[in-house]
Write a structure and sequence with these properties.
The structure holds 2 protein chains of 2 kinds.
Chain A (H helix, E strand, L loop, with lengths): L2 H13 L3 E2 L13 E7 L7 E7 L6 E4 L6 H22 L19 E3 L2 H14 L13 H15 L8 E3 H8 E2 L10 H8 L7 H8 L14 H17 L3 H34 L7 H21 L11 H25 L1 H9 L4 E9 L3 E2 L6 E2 L2 E6 L10 E4 L2 E11 L3 E7 L20 E4 L33 H4 L5
Parallel strand pairs in A: 2-5, 5-6
Antiparallel strand pairs in A: 1-7, 2-3, 3-4, 8-11, 8-15, 9-10, 11-14, 12-13, 13-14
Helix pairs in contact in A: 2-4, 3-4, 6-7, 8-9, 11-12
Chain B lengths: L1 H11 L9 H9 L4 H8 L4 H7 L10 H28 L9 E4 L9 H17 L6 E4 L3 E5 L2 E5 L3 E6 L2 E7 L4 E2 L2 E2 L1 H24 L10 E7 L6 E7 L1 H13 L3 H6 L21 H9 L16 H7 L9 H6 L6 H9 L9 H21 L1
Parallel strand pairs in B: 1-2, 6-9
Antiparallel strand pairs in B: 2-5, 3-4, 5-6, 7-8, 9-10
Classes of the chains: A alpha+beta, B alpha+beta.
Chain lengths: 491, 375
């Protein structure tokens, strides 16, 4: 959060509509995303109650568990969900990216869209409670069940990677792109958030958001259900099913339950697709495709390793070294993602301009052929002077980069109250005497310089697994899936 | 004290007061500066009913599935004289507990008034504390009390207290799952906060009897289901930090007498129930009464206070309604229209606003520059 975002929220209050926080879309939206709206039974750790799932807005499959505490029915639900999900994943791996020849990369990757953070957590818990199951032994399950568990665990892990678009919480994606006139806490309600972004005719955002808080009109987007629905509709429907004496009564009760649950899920289902439309309507940022390519690479590798049986085990908890390495990767990805966003989007760059770390201005003078002879070898070091209104807070010596010339480095020579003098290096060809035309900004050109760069950052160095220091528990035992995990209670 | 009680009784009206519980006290400390909440809670006002009469009903229902699950788990842990709990305490936490008795304090010979129950809890705990050896008793449902802004709040915790190694320990039973050693951070934090309230209340009780604070351990025992099963697991939770926060927040609570002095003497939130239990108090009159006391709304209130929707409506157009961090980002400027006026340069900044006004003007220019080209 910053003054810029805060101001956008204030503008949203006044105008009654959410205000854009970006000029482009920073998240990839797949051609065929899999939308999943899950519901869980209140009070239980991970008891799925129902889900609406599918890749087509006109054809959401409703899955429901008539007795959420029954183990068999629960695994039937998981198997049904697994069938839909695994078909989807296989569909993504059918075509290969022909433009990429260095190594195999699928043309698509799965993109699972859930309404909110709770949906992401639901994926984690469902993955955790199914991935250790076995198709043989005391409690055999369908072979798709542990496979779904592995995929869900994989997706949940990917969701932590900044810029990854394989598993997304819709409220978070929307919140990155729009500022509403309500608090961040209230933005967690998908219906209210969309009420601000795209209010229905004749209503302003505040009024639409207030309507969206009525659970009768807009049931919660899951996985938690509305307590009143639980008490007044769900509980009687579940007990009617439990009481049903003959198959006829049972199927009647089941369809009544399905109807009640459908009413809870359908509004959110519609909202999810409306949100997809809103996101698609915005132009994609320059590096969105490159980030999606990374997702597709990771997907390709994991898909093939599962097929070959070489997929790494997914232990209950990471070992110390693995956890440290992962954190280091996430930090570097975060820095890279933020840099890419700023370079793709002037409004994100504006955050840096506001804090004085970046500036935009007009080139008022340039000496493109200035040669520095102070070193051993003469080098081309052009100077430019940029006039700016931005509140620049940079010290001489600071290194900057311009979104228009990513390969070129600029060093601050001096800063005055109206202009900044920069010395440029790199990105000007081989000549030491003359810069090629266009490689140095010309007088009159409007340029932006900021501190961010998506250049490669070397990974941190960590001991090998065998050399885990005693402070971190020493070398961890190898993780082997075992019978106890496979037969774990799920009540 | 009696004058204060009388005054609070008048404010509450003809209905019986509502009890505080650890959850309401923990919530109180998240917003200690809110006089409205402080007063209504101290007077035992049914805030949900008041909010409903004002036209802002609060949706604080609890699913019967969650309640049933919580009760079933608690009953399981406490069954057969808390056999499962004892086994956990011995095996998981390595506490040397001798053969024990189990004493339920929820009912005292049919007389369950708060004062009587408190007195009984006090005498039993006093006896246990006086024995040199551990008394070996699990006390279920003790009645405790805590001084909240100069007024005693009675606590009816769902907890067991026991003595081991010369110290009392508090056991809190919760039905959220601990999966692979990790629980939902929000729920775990809430549980730790509530336990801290109990520890504090027990320390006050024993303090009055002349025992030092250390006689109640700062390590509380949290009992939760493990992974996806119903099997309980126990974890020791150190609540020293929560205790410090709680003590500090309680001491910062706006003193009731100070709030009361500023209020008209006839103030009352009585809903004037008729013989059919329908509230007949005119909403606009009630609105006026409630508005006499200043609230300190923040979006966090939505999750913890029944009055929140009313206060949110009242706070519309203020930067606080957008969240405390936004308000801080905006340099504490109170109203949204002032923020926009300063940003657009149509308002002259007041004293102390020059810096934020400058920042807002730049922010405004940057947003226009970036968006007008693109939109």
């Amino acid at each position: 959060m910053s003054v810029l975002t805060a101001l956008a929220r204030a503008e949203a209050v006044e105008s009654g509509r959410a205000q854009p926080l970006t000029t482009v879309r920073h998240t990839h939206v797949a051609e065929r995303p899999l939308v999943l709206v899950p519901l869980a039974l209140a009070g239980e750790a991970a008891a799925p109650l129902a889900a609406m799932v599918g890749t087509d807005r006109g054809d959401g499959r409703l899955l429901a568990v008539a007795n959420p505490r029954d183990r068999t029915q629960r695994f039937q639900f998981v198997a049904q969900l697994a069938k839909i999900f695994l078909t989807y994943v296989e569909g993504c791996s059918r075509a290969v990216d022909a433009t990429h020849t260095a190594k195999l990369r699928y043309a698509e990757a799965p993109q699972v869209l859930v309404p909110n953070r709770g949906g992401v957590e639901f994926i984690r818990l469902l993955g955790r409670s199914t991935r250790f199951r076995r198709t043989y032994g005391p409690h055999p399950v369908h072979r798709t069940v542990p496979l779904l568990g592995q995929w869900f665990t994989f997706l949940r892990e990917r969701a932590d990677h900044p810029g990854s678009a394989m598993l997304l919480a819709m409220t978070e994606v929307l919140g990155e792109h729009w500022a509403t006139g309500q608090s961040g806490l209230e933005d967690a309600n998908l219906a209210a958030l969309l009420g601000w972004i795209d209010p229905p005719d004749g209503l302003d955002g505040a009024a639409a958001a207030e309507l969206a808080e009525d659970p009768l009109r807009w049931p919660p987007a899951g996985p938690s259900t509305d307590p009143t629905f639980d008490n007044e509709i769900l509980a009687p429907a579940l007990s009617a099913y439990a009481r049903a004496a003959d198959p006829q009564a049972q199927s009647r009760a089941e369809s009544a339950l399905g109807g009640a649950i459908r009413e809870q899920l359908e509004p959110t289902w519609g909202l999810m697709w409306r949100a997809v439309d809103l996101l698609r309507a915005r132009p994609a940022g320059g590096s969105v495709e490159a980030r999606w390519a990374i997702d597709r690479d990771v997907f390709t590798v994991y898909h093939m390793s599962l097929a070959e049986g070489t997929a790494l085990p997914q232990p209950r908890r990471d070992s110390a070294v693995a956890a440290a390495g992962r954190l280091d990767r996430l930090e570097r990805e975060q820095a890279r993602y933020e840099a890419q966003r700023a370079l793709d989007d002037p409004l994100v760059m504006a955050e840096f301009r506001l804090s004085g770390e970046a500036f935009t201005g007009t080139v008022v003078s340039a000496s493109p052929n200035r040669v520095d002879t102070s070193g051993k070898k003469a080098a081309l070091r052009p100077h430019i002077t940029v006039q700016t209104e931005d509140p620049v807070r940079l010290e001489p010596g600071a290194l900057l980069v311009s979104p228009a010339r990513l390969s070129q480095q600029a060093m601050v020579v001096s800063v005055s109250s109206v202009d900044v003098v920069l010395e440029l290096s790199k990105g000007m060809g081989r000549s030491t005497k003359q810069a090629p035309p266009g490689s140095v900004p010309e007088v009159g050109e409007v340029v932006t310089y900021g501190p961010v760069s998506d250049a490669y950052q070397p990974p941190g160095r960590f001991p090998s697994r065998e050399d885990t220091p005693w402070t971190h528990g020493g070398p961890p035992p190898d993780y082997q899936p075992n019978d106890i995990d496979a037969a774990e209670d799920w009540s | 004290m009696d004058a204060l009680v009388d005054r609070l009784d008048r404010i509450r009206g003809t209905v019986a007061p509502r009890n505080h519980n650890a959850r309401t006290i923990a919530a109180l400390t998240t917003n200690p500066g809110c006089g409205r909440r402080g007063l209504m809670d101290a007077a035992g006002v049914n805030k949900g009913a008041v909010a409903g009469q004002l036209g802002f009903p609060a949706a604080f229902g609890q699913s019967r599935f969650a309640i049933a699950r919580g009760n079933a788990f608690e009953a399981q842990v406490k069954a057969d004289g808390a056999a499962e709990l004892l086994q956990l305490l011995r095996e998981r936490l390595g506490l040397a507990i001798p053969e024990v008795a189990y004493d339920d304090l929820s009912n005292v010979g049919g007389n369950a008034s708060r004062e009587v129950r408190y007195a009984r809890t006090r005498s039993l705990l006093a006896r246990a504390a006086a024995e040199r050896d551990d008394a070996g008793t699990l006390f279920d449902h003790p009645m405790l009390r805590l001084d909240i802004a100069g007024y005693y709040a009675y606590l009816e915790p769902d907890l067991i207290a026991f003595r081991a190694g010369g110290r009392f320990h508090v056991v809190e039973i919760k039905s959220f799952a601990v999966i692979d050693g990790q629980a939902d951070p929000g729920k775990a934090a809430a549980a730790a906060k509530q336990s801290a309230v109990y520890v504090l209340a027990m320390r006050e009780l024993l303090g009055e009897l002349g025992y030092p604070p250390e006689s109640v351990s700062h390590n509380v025992v949290l009992v939760c289901p493990e992974n996806f099963a119903n099997r309980p697991t126990a974890t020791l939770v150190d609540v020293r930090k929560q205790l410090t926060v709680l003590r500090r927040q309680l001491s910062r609570l706006t003193r009731l007498d100070k709030i009361l002095d500023a209020l008209p003497s006839g103030l009352s939130f009585d809903l004037a129930y008729d013989s059919d239990q329908n509230a007949t108090r005119p909403p606009d009159e009630l609105h006026k009464a409630v508005s006499e006391i200043d609230a300190r709304y923040s979006p966090d209130c939505l999750g913890s206070c029944e009055m929140a929707f009313f206060c949110r409506d009242e706070a519309a157009g203020s930067t606080t309604a957008l969240g405390r961090s936004i308000r801080d980002d905006l340099g504490g400027v109170e109203s949204v229209s002032t923020v926009l006026g300063l940003a657009r340069g149509t308002l002259t900044p007041g004293a102390g606003q020059e810096e934020i006004a400058g920042l807002l003007r730049v922010a405004h220019r940057l947003r226009r520059e970036c968006l007008e080209g693109a939109v």
